[in-house]
């Protein structure tokens, strides 16, 4: 098991990754370990797929619905001006989607979130912040 996200999925199964927000049928929604963009989350497929085109069509449709539910939950809690969703996989080639809520007061609003990547580590969440943000997001799934 050499893929970073396969390892994370494995740790999630063992209850050893405390950033889990919600388990879907095909994916896990995690709070991002940094919150440079408040509400930043990542949706990771349970199985290792390299590309979205590698996901069987029926699962892909379910996965899309899971992405939309994750999007709605994040939107309801954080009320961003715009959500940036992206799936790159150049660093870790396991299908995952980043959700970056973007806000009105962001001076870099029209730029892609990755241009601020060098600052992400400066915004690591504390355990208390993490638990609070996860609780707020989990509440949305109870209502869905
Ligand atoms: Zn993987």
Q: Mind explaining what this structure looks like?
A:
By secondary structure, this protein is an alpha+beta fold. Helices cover 34% and strands 18% of the residues. The chain has one domain: 2-Layer Sandwich (HIT family, subunit A), CATH 3.30.428. It is built from three helices and five strands. Strands 1-2-3-5-4 form a five-stranded antiparallel beta sheet. The longest helix has 22 residues, at 57-78. It starts with a helix and ends with a helix. The model has no long low-confidence stretch (mean pLDDT 96). The structure holds zinc ion (ZN). Residues 3, 5-6, 48, 94 line the site of zinc ion. Zinc ion binds at residues 3, 5-6, 48, 94.
Q: Which key terms come to mind for this protein?
A:
binds zinc ion
In CATH, the topology is named HIT family, subunit A
The largest sheet has its strands arranged as: 1-2-3-5-4
- Quote the beta fraction: 15-25%
Give the helices and strands as they follow along the chain: HEEEHEEH
Q: What is the percent of helical residues?
A: 25-40%
Taking pLDDT < 50 over at least 5 consecutive residues as the criterion, the unreliable ranges are none
Q: What is Rg?
A: 15 Å
What's the CATH class label? Alpha Beta
- The first-to-last residue Cα distance is 34 Å
Quickly count the domains.
Answer: 1
- Which shape, going by the Cα principal axes? globular
User: Averaging pLDDT over every residue, what do you get?
Assistant: 96
**In the CATH classification, which architecture applies?**
2-Layer Sandwich
Largest sheet: 5 strands, antiparallel
Total count of strands: 5
Structural class, from helix and strand content?
alpha+beta
Q: Which molecules are bound in this entry?
A: zinc ion
Query: How many helical stretches?
Result: 3
- In CATH terms, the superfamily is HIT-like
């Amino acid at each position: 098991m050499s893929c970073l996200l396969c390892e994370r999925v494995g740790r999630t199964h063992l209850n050893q990754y405390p950033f889990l927000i919600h388990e879907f049928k095909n994916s896990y929604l995690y709070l991002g370990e940094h919150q440079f963009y408040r509400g930043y989350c990542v949706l990771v497929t349970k199985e290792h797929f390299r590309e979205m085109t590698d996901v069987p069509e029926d699962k892909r449709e379910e996965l899309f619905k899971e992405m939309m539910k994750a999007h709605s939950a994040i939107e309801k809690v954080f009320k961003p001006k715009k959500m940036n969703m992206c799936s790159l996989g150049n660093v870790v080639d396991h299908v995952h989607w980043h959700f970056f809520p973007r806000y009105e007061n962001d001076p870099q609003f029209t730029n892609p979130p990755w241009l601020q990547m060098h600052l992400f580590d400066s915004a690591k969440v504390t355990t208390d912040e993490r638990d609070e943000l996860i609780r707020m997001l989990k509440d949305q799934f109870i209502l869905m």
